[in-house]
Amino acid sequence: MATRKSKIFTGFGVALLAVLGFAIFFFMSFKTVIVNGHSMDPTFHTGNRLLVSNAYWLVSPLKDKDVVVIKTGQGPGDYIIKRIYKMAGETVDFYNVPEDWSLARGTYVVPEGHVYVLGDNREVSQDSRAFGAVDMNKIIGKVVVRPGVSSQP
After folding, report:
1. Residue 141's pLDDT is what?
2. Which of 34, 57, 72, 32 is CA-nearest to residue 152?
3. What is the pTM of this model?
4. What is the DSSP secondary-structure string of 135-147?
């Protein structure tokens, strides 16, 4: 009887460890963010909740047109949501180069280790045109799911 109890407990313990491991993985790899502002209209609106992942091996590497969340400060709400326009080594067209870039300097190429991001609502978006290419280390993650919209008007 004691042998059977230890086998059941061992199986239960393994299952518990698996659930704990999955919970830790999910907590470390996924975050929920809430859209605030109009720079990503009409794709996302203020109050939309987005699921973001930094497990690129699971959800695919970053590429042009991916929507990413970028850390802008130290607080939990210090982030912006933008779309990747160009990756490192790619050339940005003259209409979207940084505001301080002189056309006399030639074409603008995104530096290594950086991405060039734009908001979907270009008229109101503060993006790489204003602050330049973004260091990849500042990317919190890639938007993978839009789970729902808040009930706010």
Report:
1. 94
2. 34
3. 0.82
4. EGGGEEEEEEEEE
